[in-house]
Design brief:
Layout lengths: L2 E2 L3 E8 L5 E8 L11 E6 L7 E4 L5 E6 L5 E6 L6 E6 L7 E2 L6 E5 L5 E6 L2 E8 L5 E2 L3 E5 L11 E2 L6 E2 L19 H8 L5
Length: about 200
């Protein structure tokens, strides 16, 4: 669910494993400076004073943040390279960052073990093996499978706990053509004609 006001948009993405904080993408429409032009990643504590605080704030877009199962890492999407790629940073920081994808990517999901990260690269489902101890070290991305599945939002698939099955939405072949938009003019006049007593 996206929360939007005249001044800010907030898109929730991931709860910490202990349920104490929520990661969100936020965009402050009131701040038009070039330093804050896109979406940033914020943290909302769910205990005590519920005040948003920044986790990652740059002039680029950072979105789709996901906690690792142990809560020590955050995978997210950023367009800092000129296209959307997957990155990982330690939580709560500070620390370095690691670029995970190589040719674009979105929608990161951790495996329950925390030893793999899944993401989408258009029609490809990608997987990256990661080591987090003693230091963070990602392997090279590899294609897990390919297929036409709907791209709806920041979170349009899910991974089974065993990491072997995926829940995704296949497009309807009957709707594979160009979308049609019907525009109805003077629709209120039609309502008044069909519904007695409509004003």
């Amino acid at each position: 669910m996206t929360t939007e006001t005249a001044l800010q948009q907030q898109v929730p993405h991931s709860f910490s494993p202990d349920g104490s904080v929520l990661l969100l993408s936020t965009n402050n429409w009131a701040d038009t400076s070039s330093a804050n032009a896109g979406f940033d990643i914020s943290v909302l504590p769910l205990n005590g004073e519920r005040t948003l605080r920044p986790f990652l704030q740059t002039k680029f877009n950072e979105e789709a943040a996901r906690f690792s199962p142990d809560g020590r890492w955050v995978a997210y999407v950023s367009d800092e390279s000129g296209r959307f790629e997957i990155y990982i940073r330690p939580y709560p920081g500070p620390g370095g960052k690691w670029q995970i994808s190589a040719e674009g990517g979105g929608e990161p999901h951790w495996s329950r073990s925390g030893r793999e990260l899944f993401y989408r690269d258009e029609d490809k489902m990608m997987i990256v093996d990661v080591e987090t101890k003693p230091t963070f070290r990602p392997a090279r991305p590899r294609t897990l499978f390919e297929g036409r599945y709907l791209l709806l939002d920041f979170n349009d698939y899910d991974v089974a706990p065993d990491g072997m099955r995926f829940l995704m939405i296949k497009p309807d072949p009957a709707e594979s053509g160009a979308a049609h938009v019907n525009v109805v003019l003077n629709w209120f006049e039609d309502v008044k004609r069909r519904v007695p007593g409509a004003n």
